Amino acid sequence: MPGTNPQDHLSSRAKELWLNEPDPGPRSARYAAADTNDADGDAPQPANTRRPVNWVSTLYGYEEFWRENGRSPRENTRNLATLPAEERRKGGWAGYQRKFEERLCRYQIIRLDLSPAFEWDPQENIWQKNFAAYVHHLQRTGNPPYLNGADPVEFALGRWFNRQLRQLQIDAQPKNRADQLAVLLALLSTTGAISHPR
Fold first, then answer.
1. Would you state the pLDDT for residue 38?
2. What are the CB-based long-range contacts (under 8 Å, 24+) for 186-191?
3. Which of 31, 87, 93, 123 could make a disulfide contact with 107, Cβ separation 3.0–4.6 Å?
4. CA 91, 97, 100 angle in degrees (round to 5)?
5. pLDDT higher for 80 or 127?
6. What are the angstrom distances between the C-alpha of 84 and each of 22, 67, 120, 122?
7. Where is this region: Disordered (predicted)?
8. How many whole angstroms separate alpha carbon 196 and alpha carbon 198?
9. What is the Cα–Cα distance from 13 to 56, expressed in whole angstroms?
10. What b-and-e string marks burial along 50-70, b requiring 16 or more CB atoms within 10 Å of the CB?
11. In whole angstroms, what is the distance from residue 116 CA to residue 7 CA?
């Protein structure tokens, strides 16, 4: 029954988008079929479907981790001893998808685009979330986040912004981030709420 499995909606949406492509392609068809069949059948799989079934099954495990933990699996951490092997494997799988994107079929790319757990550029995604949180705090309170020890969230946002300003000063920000920061700094200076690095 559709809707009982969290992947059902993602699978049907990916298949719909893929079928609207000018040339859906036979390789993608195997991945679409594996995704549609939930990649968990007990029946022996023909040789040309094993890889798609394994890929979909791994994607489902990756998305399940995200649902259970509220974040995607990590590939690395400062202290690798604290990173469970299973999480590292899942994170490594995602890193492999990013690294070898050109080898993925169109269906795989569409399905990863739709996945709530997967990001093609996790660092950029984190940066954009921090930027949005900073702007939200500014709009909500009328003041930029400061290094306020009483509020760990505000403290983290203030510290994050100060790091971004330092990177901007030494011309180490990518253009898209520098442009976003320039707009924000202009807004801060017109409102008189400019925050200087501490």
1. 64
2. 187/138, 188/138, 188/144, 191/142
3. 31
4. 135
5. 127
6. 42, 17, 23, 20
7. 1-51
8. 6
9. 15
10. eebbebbebbbbbbebbeeee
11. 10
Q: How far is CA 34 from CA 44, 45, 63, in A?
A: 13, 10, 16
**Residue 171 falls in which region: left (phi positive, over 0), alpha (psi -120 to 50) or beta:** left
Token representation of residue 10: 């993602």
DSSP states along 115-134: -SS--SSHHHHHHHHHHHHH
Q: Which two tokens stand for residue 191?
A: 């409102």
| Least confident segment among 21-30, 36-45, 147-156 | 36-45
**Tokens 């100060």 belong to residue:** 162
